[in-house]
Amino acid sequence: MAGKTLYDKLWEAHLVKERDDGTALIYIDRHLIHEVTSPQAFEGLRIANRKPWRLDTNIATPDHNVPTTDRSAGIEDPVARIQVQALDDNCDEFGILEYKMTDPRQGVLHVVGPEQGAALPGMTIVCGDSHTSTHGAFGALAHGIGTSEVEHVLATQCLIQKKMKNMLIRINGNVGSGVTAKDIVLAIIAKIGTAGGTGYAIEFAGEAIEALSVEGRMTVCNMAIEGGARAGMVAVDDTTVDYFKGRTFAPKGELWDQAVVSWRAFYSDDDAVFDAVVELEGAGIIPQVSWGTSPEMVVAIDQALPDPESESDPVKAEGMRRAYQYMDLKPGMTMGDVVPDRVFIGSCTNSRIEDLRSAAEVAKGRKVDAKVLQALVVPGSGLVKKQAEDEGLDQIFIKAGFEWREPGCSMCLAMNADKLGDGEHCASTSNRNFEGRQGYGGRTHLVSPAMAAAAAVSGRFVDVRELLASN
Amino acid sequence: MEKYEKFSGIVAPLDRANIDTDQIIPKQFLKSIKRTGFGPNLFDEWRYLDEGLPEQDCSGRPLNKEFVLNQDRYQGSSVMVARKNFGCGSSREHAPWALTDFGFKAVIAPSFADIFFNNSFKNGLLPIVLSEEIVDELFQGVFGTEGYSLEVDLANQVINTPDGKSVLFDVDPFRKHCLLEGLDDIGITLEDADAIKAFESKHEVAAPWVFNAIKAEA
Ligand code: SF4
User: Fold this and answer.
1) Residue A377 belongs to what H/E stretch?
2) What confidence tens digit (pLDDT) does each residue in B64-93 have?
3) Model ipTM?
4) Which residues on chain B are in Cβ contact (under 8 Å) with A160?
5) What does each C-alpha distance from A225 to A188, A199, A446 come to in angstroms?
6) CA B25 to CA B119: how far, in whole Å?
7) What residues form DSSP beta bridges with A135?
8) Between A82, A130, A322, which is nearest B91 by CB?
9) Does the pTM of the predicted model rise above 0.90?
10) CB A297 within 8 A of CB A316
11) pLDDT for the residue A20
């Protein structure tokens, strides 16, 4: 009999019941809750007079709507204020742990969960947010759900699921220096397309992935959804285990030892069979930038922008033409021709301490170019912010002309005051470059934190490796 | 949820691939804590010429006359056809809420993003997957004939075109059952409460650290 994949093992360890119709009930270990996708779910519980199945599984924090400037006066936008208030009230009413907006542990949920050890290896983790795939980085089965499912998980601690297919994406060999997790995942999406992973759970493997820290693996898994897969994951290894030791909600003492033994079983067997295998050469990946309005519209920094006329798929070619029009760019240009009006370093993809360190390394001793209207650094959580301040990174950014902000989703989706103006280009470390994502008429270019910092200090998109070489 | 009955509806053609949920309902409208009222802001950035604001009265806003949903011939439509990977992006259930609030009951495309696909069934919106060729034919039909409508018959898993053609489609039996009967998933799952409890006891032995770790602070 063929061996099992990591996904098979996680699935089996949480299978409550298989039903005759081919669906299954899957038990959920952790449920992360934020203000945007939960109010209607709590309302549903109240209407049906239902209680949460368990309380010790849930953790909440507001992140999408919160201002990233001084919060002591509350939220100015009345509609956002009501939504954050609704989360506070619901968590209080039902007895759910919440880090409120002014709590030093507040932050983007996908940063906070692992940071607190609330999300752990071997778990099933869900959240009403598609970037829940982030948590797969440490050998967990994690994916986004809709609001009806948020209510379903609250009420039953389970989800009705159909098993996905298995895909392996292997990066052979390591990547060069100055090439980050973000470049790896952008290169992957450019290769498989935004629907390439639809219906699959993706396991990322190979030397370049093994060499990444857990934070880097989170960046990769975060964007599994941009490749169409609800869940992305990486097998548990020493790096994973070390990352969780001593975290607030991680097991301690004997329980820790027991947990580590159990977690170490979460890898794919050598003889496991995948429904699809994709391979990339690590040495071939260099810093990446997205040029269009879909995360698959990506080029390496030294490449010319592609010509829709040479695209054989007519639907794809039409999408490219539309993207060129929206982005006000032309085939044949290079990204070096583009001036970023704003720069955003943040989001659940790239706002952890290592991301800030790598951006600071580039910003150090340099100045944000005069053509750049604003460069924002938004740490992923209050604890990341504090850590960065302890290391003096905030001062490096501020001296270079960046703004140093409070944690939240911020300009990743512009639900708060941080947004692009109509027609502005942005070098952004977030994950989506859809039309209007970062503000009405805004034009997003997805890059790594180091590339974003390099764009900020150069006033155009450049290969960060050139700056690093002169450091 | 209401029972999903057989119906016939005008078809609106949205001739694009990779339509994402940020387009279906832009983020500023996600601040609502209700499930209803999203219809006027469906495809807000394509439908209007100005930038939409939450809780705004949309009746006086300048319309983008070229956008499909603003064209006279597609008024009152309840079926949408689109290209592949419909509903990609954010998990926001506000996307199917906006589509149904507007009046859509079915979306036909060669493929859908997983989370959107799931969310739709829970809100009385039927996503129908058909081959690229058939979707192409439907586009041609809709563009060529004013008032083009389709009959959607979920019970028999078939759509009937005005020229008398019947096209079968696949649907997951459980989801079909829930839609046809208007059933609430949670109620169905809770019928298995004993199985969930039994699993939980077993799981607590295998992975005790999962339990009793997180508590609300006083
Ligand atoms: S940072 Fe962006 S992608 Fe991540 S949860 Fe927030 S809005 Fe979503």
Assistant:
1) strand A374-377
2) 999 999 999 999 999 999 999 999 998 899
3) 0.93
4) 174, 185, 189
5) 12, 11, 15
6) 14
7) none
8) A130
9) yes
10) no
11) 82
